[in-house]
Write a structure and sequence with these properties.
Layout lengths: L3 E4 L30 H13 L8 E3 L12 H10 L3 E6 L15 E8 L4 H6 L5 H17 L5 E8 L7 H11 L2 E6 L5 H8 L5 H10 L5 H6 L12 E4 L4 E3 L12 E4 L5 H8 L4 H8 L1 H6 L23 H8 L2 H32 L1
Parallel strand pairs: 1-2, 1-7, 2-3, 3-4, 4-5, 5-6
Antiparallel strand pairs: 8-9
Helix pairs in contact: 1-2
The structure holds iron/sulfur cluster (2 copies).
One iron/sulfur cluster binds next to helix 10.
Length: 362
């Protein structure tokens, strides 16, 4: 059973980020539709459950290279997952206001808000949005989501560029005031072809010059040199599906790469899905060049403070429950996890209904 699935519900993004393959429009796809059809989405989810590839211990992240809140029927998508008690996650640039129906977010487990800095000047360089509008929208999303039953993990992913280093503290304070986790990390070449050219010293001069004014690269060689010899790409453990219902190699290859799509997932057997995911020829080159390791190891410098409202326990410390879980055989672990999730969702639903009643009484 896959623990994490990336299901792209919106194949488009309104961001203009020059170092992201979606924002710089370097891999336009000839697709008929930019958004997943909720009926098709439901068919894929139902089949994956039947094949036991996903279940209650899976989280479905409804994004990969697109902005999920651009989907005009987002409420329908959430409803489909709620009906099946499947947890889901969202990553958004917070540029779109969205009205979520009451109770539809009790299954949402994670919300990530990504920002390219914390000033209009930084937004002008990367996302291209109005910064004040984004701030107001973050507050209205947080409020709206709470009313819709969301009580999971909220996180601001702050992408560190050279020009926004001095804005880290302001963003951190903004998160502190709202009890939002803050996770800064270096922005990188979020574009397979650009990253490949950079690492093989083939990036054209103009692009390299522009990149040298935005991104920080001083840590990259050291990071890649630290890659374990037997490094296995984490993408082998995820399922990746695009807005057309195609199984993908991963969420690193761009849409115009020959190994991007592995065919419509509805036409594949369990064996084919599992084998195709881990047997693409491009992976050897991707791992050997260091691209895979770079993209999966976001680097946070010491000067950028993180706020984590759910800090890890002290090293070596296990709660009695964690100790039991650690020593249980796998089938029992799965069973316990499943019931913990059922319990968590039920509690969230009851809590949401209780809050609603109190609100009405007031
Ligand atoms: S980095 Fe995020 S916001 Fe920017 S273009 Fe890419 S997907 Fe959109
Ligand atoms: S090794 Fe590279 S191409 Fe292969 S799955 Fe990982 S990120 Fe994708």
């Amino acid at each position: 059973m896959y623990k994490l699935v990336y299901f792209e519900i919106s194949g488009v993004c309104n961001g203009k980020c020059p170092w992201c393959v979606t924002g710089n429009k370097s891999a336009i796809h000839n697709s008929h539709s930019s958004f997943v059809d909720p009926k098709e989405f439901e068919k894929v989810i139902t089949r994956l459950i039947e094949l036991k590839l996903i279940g209650m211990t899976t989280r479905i992240d409804l994004f990969s290279w697109g902005e999920p809140f651009l989907h005009p029927e987002f409420n329908e998508i959430a409803k489909i997952l709620n009906k099946r008690n499947i947890l889901f996650g969202i990553s958004t640039n917070a540029s779109r206001p969205i009205n979520i129906k009451q109770g539809l977010l009790t299954n949402m487990d994670q919300l990530t808000i990504s920002v390219p800095g914390f000033s209009q000047a930084s937004y002008d360089r990367i996302h291209g949005f109005n910064f004040n509008y984004i701030l107001r929208n973050i507050d209205s999303l947080l409020d709206n989501f709470k009313k819709a039953g969301f009580s999971g993990y909220t996180n601001m992913a702050y992408h560190i560029y050279q020009f926004n280093i001095e804005e880290i503290g302001i963003a951190r304070d903004f998160c502190l005031q709202r009890k939002v986790n803050f996770t800064p990390s270096f922005a990188y070449l979020n574009d397979f072809n650009l990253a490949k050219s950079y690492l093989s010293n083939n990036l054209d001069y103009a692009t390299l010059k522009n990149a040298s004014k935005d991104l920080l690269f001083y840590y990259v060689d050291k990071l890649i040199a630290s890659m374990p010899k037997d490094y296995s790409c984490p993408q082998y453990n995820y399922l990746n599906i695009d807005e057309q219902g195609n199984l993908l190699t991963c969420c690193v290859l761009p849409k115009n790469h020959p190994n991007y799509s592995l065919g419509p997932i509805l036409g594949l057997s369990v064996e084919e899905i599992k084998t195709k995911k881990v047997s693409q020829s491009v992976c050897r080159e991707c791992i050997n060049s260091g691209i895979a390791y770079w993209m999966h190891n976001p680097c946070t410098p010491d000067f950028a403070d993180c706020i984590n409202y759910f800090p890890n326990k002290k090293e070596g410390y296990y709660s009695p429950m964690a100790l039991i879980k650690k020593n249980l055989p796998s089938p029992f672990k799965e069973l316990i996890k499943k019931y913990v999730i059922i319990f968590k969702i039920r509690i969230r639903k009851v809590w949401f209904q209780l809050n609603n009643k109190i609100h009405k009484l007031n």
